[in-house]
């Protein structure tokens, strides 16, 4: 399965069980309408903002109460699209993603200015999506994507995001 195919399957599904996890992690399920197929989304090693019509409701360093209120707004809304983004600034190239929900709510993800991964060959993962078959789609801070299928003995494929992928948000996260 290609990264595009893996991610496309998660779109047009309703967000359920949206919650703050450990630290600034956010997790939620995506459920289809009557198809019985469910996805799990994990916003992982990145900064993030939840906005409604461009107004910030909460970010990764907000109080628990503000984060709960913002994540509650996503509950029951359909994820309409996902943008994988590159930002070019005088300090370099940065990567991010935006989840677009109904009612003009967005969750914008930004790579950390200083990576949290410890090894020289490791890279922070901004978010992961898994289906019930445990097929993982990962979007990394270097702009690469990975798809790994647990029942497949091959290593995950890694590809670069095409140039010209654009969207709002801004580089890098300093929450």
Molecular structure report:
The structure is a single chain. By secondary structure, this protein is mainly β. It has one domain (3-160). It has two helices and twelve strands; from the N terminus they run H-E-E-E-E-E-H-E-E-E-E-E-E-E. It has helices at residues 3-8, 64-74, and strands spanning 13-20, 26-31, 38-43, 47-52, 55-59, 78-89, 92-101, 105-110, 125-131, 135-140, 144-149, 157-160. A twelve-stranded antiparallel sheet has the order 5-4-8-7-6-1-2-3-9-10-11-12. The longest helix has 11 residues, at 64-74. The radius of gyration is 15 Å and the shape is globular. It starts with a helix and ends in a 15-residue tail after the last strand. Residues 152-175 have low confidence and may be disordered.
Which features does this protein show?
175 residues, mainly beta, twelve-stranded antiparallel β-sheet, 10% helix, 47% strand
General shape: globular
What oligomeric arrangement do these chains adopt? single chain
Strand residue percentage: over 45%
The number of domains is 1
Spell out the helices and strands N to C: HEEEEEHEEEEEEE
What's the pLDDT, averaged over the residues?
82
How many DSSP H or I helices? 2
Instruction: Tell me the radius of gyration.
Output: 15 Å
Helix content: under 10%
Q: Decide which structural class fits the backbone.
A: mainly beta
Tell me the span between the first and last alpha carbons: 34 Å
